[in-house]
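G., the chain you wanted modeled:
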Amino acid sequence: MQEFVFLPDRKADAQSSFDTLSQTVSGTARISMSLQAAAPGRGGFTKSSLEAANNSIKASAKSASDDSKEIEIVDFVERTGAVLLSAAEIPSPKQFKSGSIHPVIYYQPAVAEVRVGRSKLKLSSGPAATDFLQIKLQFSDTGRPVKNAVANLRLVGESEVSAVSDEDGVVTFGIRIPSVSGARLLVEPGFAGHWGFMEANATFASGDVVDIERINLTSTKDALRYMIAQGGPADGVGVRVGVVDSGVGPHTDLPNVDGDEDSSIGHGTHVAGIIAGKGANSLGGVAPGVDILSYRVFADPSTGIARNFEIHRAIEQAVEDGCHLVNLSLKSEFPLAPKQDDPVISRALEDAAEAGTLCVAAAGNDFRRFVAFPARHKDALAVSAVGWEPGMPANAFDRWTVTDDRSTVDSDIFFANFSNEGVDSTRVDLTGPGAGIVSTVPGDTYAPMSGTSMACPAIVGAISRLLSANPAVLDLPADQTRTDAFRHLIKQNLVKAGFNRVRQGGGTLE
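Predicted structure as tokens:
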């Protein structure tokens, strides 16, 4: 079975949306409804739209034959009339006299993915762990064990083995050797408040101890706090931001969030903390006074992907809920062509702009490829990523992002190696700190992450501060004029980041 999205013409109501479906499949297919959609409170139906759907189901049944194909209604968006459908075969787009039919496209968080991850670990084999190569991970300041951290060891000849540290911080690699030389050792940042570790030419013996740096920004800032000053309690007051992601929190430093909780992958919580975290000791976000509304689209932590349908619905709901800004730290899962368009999400972006809501999106992490969708859409602001080298410990895992592409304004600022650029007829609008960014994660702790996923909320936070400080703009009627005014205010406040337009767009915000 394949999934498709039916988009009715603009301003269509539920009845006309389902009538179009019924008329299109008349005599060739039978419409049904999934159990999930039909269950009370599960689908996006109101009582009236559910009645309209049932009327279409009855109408299609009257004209269907015994061998008619089945098209299943999976979900519905009340605001736009978009319908998620499942079928072995969908009618040709030419059969639709109004509206349009589109395949489901999948999206993923725009975090730079280089991590091994527990789901990719291979189990060690052998009668006992004592003969295996072991190291111990401990915090450099206290000597206490670093638990539940993913470590990866690459030996000469490209052989790799990974494992997770136990309660004593011991990592047992599934190889029976007493020592290694010239190996690459990686310890991923986890939710235990540590930076992680990277050494490209490591030499150690079984039983050796590796010191891991604890996150502590009181003495050294990260790229976020260096490039954009940490916000005060009043920064962002009056601004409402929609975070379309994996959900947010709960986290003690994010009391200003309403909506869906994090699915456990931590991405949405990290994004929200960058925008509006209220952490002390230099751990706060850019605009702590912002009100955040959380819309979970990455609901399944095992896949980490979302349909365009869910993202369409979340953006439309954010507009309905009065959000001034929407953060989209996500990108299309596949490297599609630079001019590829997803009409399902494009409709939502256009609706948002017309309703006075500005969408800000991550440019993507495809190592200098063209700007990903939806960031390259004309109604979104595309954000690339830079980093600040002194903001990461000497052996920090996230130093893999560092390049020699340096800013002409500040030579310690680099253009992140993973970031996409405004090439192949795409464009970057502005850039922001996105390498080695420390923010909130589930469990009331903090962790570093890297990606245009992080640069995007940094800029959203900076825009929020601007809007809050300019109430005459913030309080404009919620329509296209307000969106245009937001863009104009941003343009007036841009400063050069020290890169060419392909990488920085118009610059950055401080």
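The first strand starts at residue 2 and ends at 7.

Shout if anything looks off.
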